[in-house]
Write a structure and sequence with these properties.
Layout: E1 2-3, E2 13-18, E3 24-27, E4 39-45, E5 75-80, E6 83-87, H1 93-99, E7 107-109, H2 115-118, H3 125-130, E8 136-140, H4 142-151, E9 169-173, E10 178-180, E11 183-190, E12 197-204, E13 207-212, H5 220-224, E14 231-235, H6 248-258, E15 262-266, H7 274-280, E16 285-287, E17 293-298
Parallel strand pairs: 1-3, 6-7, 7-8, 8-9, 13-14, 14-15, 15-16
Antiparallel strand pairs: 2-3, 2-17, 4-5, 4-17, 5-6, 10-11, 11-12, 12-13
Length: about 300
């Protein structure tokens, strides 16, 4: 195990970054002893809508032997004490749960209605079964909620009377801060083409995280909701301009403006080699990859 310090603030707290083969600790400070409250997240996927490698491509990233260049569709698994939240359930959702041994899901947050963020949603039904037919809440904006009811018309809050497996979901429309799983959750409206899209801010156990996997531009009121973040996770598609996603240059500019203590970028295309990004990003910023796990812990909790 290797440890290294990064000068990211004066909070009595820790980031613990777990790499799949080599755990690395990033202490913010070592003051005091503590009983650490569990607030962690894992990238189940870090790729764009086509995934990486993309079908029929033999570019250097698609043929890379670096496992960090193999990217399933973007999704984040967040642990809040003994509860768990999944953000987005794309087409790779089932394989992500199997690969990373996702043990439970207590709630879902959907950022928007694009296929790469919702088309694995039916597999939530397995967690209803594993959790004694517990109904799972799904939080999303109005347009996403209406679209989910249209795409998955068979979803209800009750078991199927014929004994068939169906997701048991309670859809909850949200647009303002709300409480769930012991955390304060704040939807973050962003611009992403013509599709109503949200990121999500999570405040729990004295720490904060914001996840925005798809964005082209931030409205000023949304930036106002992102002050004081410990962790920012932000879209970075490629270097070339794109009509609905951030370039590397603009992603870094927004991350610098937002000023989180630590930033990870996600939702990469097949043009972005992980190893190259590691070398060129600012010190407090890094590329995410599938399986990367981070624990946020407030060191002054008793």
């Amino acid at each position: 195990m290797v440890s290294r310090s990064i000068p990211v603030g004066r909070h009595c707290s820790l980031f613990t970054v777990h790499y799949p083969l080599s755990p690395v600790h990033y202490p913010l400070s070592t003051a005091g002893s503590a009983r650490l409250a569990r607030f962690s997240f894992r990238f189940l996927g870090s790729g764009t809508s086509a995934g990486v490698p993309i079908i029929g491509c033999d570019c250097p990233v698609c043929t890379s032997t670096d496992p960090r260049d193999n990217r399933m569709r973007s999704s984040l698994y967040v642990t809040l004490g003994d509860k768990a939240l999944i953000i987005d359930t794309g087409p790779d959702f089932r394989m992500q749960c199997l690969r990373f041994k996702v043990p439970r899901i207590d709630a879902v947050f959907l950022t928007h209605l694009h296929a790469d963020h919702i088309f694995g949603f039916d597999d939530i039904r397995r967690y209803n079964t594993l959790q004694n037919n517990q109904v799972i809440h799904c939080y999303c904006g109005h347009d996403t909620l209406e679209g989910m009811r249209r795409i998955f018309p068979y979803i209800t809050e009750k078991p199927n009377t014929q004994g068939l497996f169906r997701p048991m979901i309670s859809f909850v429309e949200v647009s303002a801060p709300f409480e769930a799983l012991g955390a304060k959750l704040t939807p973050l409206p962003v611009l992403h083409g013509n599709v109503a899209t949200y990121g999500l801010r999570i405040d729990y156990a004295g720490k904060s995280l914001a996840y925005i996997p798809d964005v082209h531009e931030f409205p000023e009121p949304t930036l106002d909701l992102m002050h004081g973040l410990d962790v920012l996770i932000l879209n970075m598609l490629r270097d070339k301009p794109h009509p609905t996603h951030l370039t590397r240059e603009r992603a870094i500019a927004y991350a610098t403006q937002i000023g989180a203590q630590r930033t990870w970028f996600t939702h990469f295309s097949h043009i972005m080699p992980h190893a190259d990004l590691e070398k060129i990003l600012p010190p407090s910023m890094a590329p995410a990859y599938d399986g990367l796990s981070v624990t946020l812990s407030r060191g002054c909790l008793k």
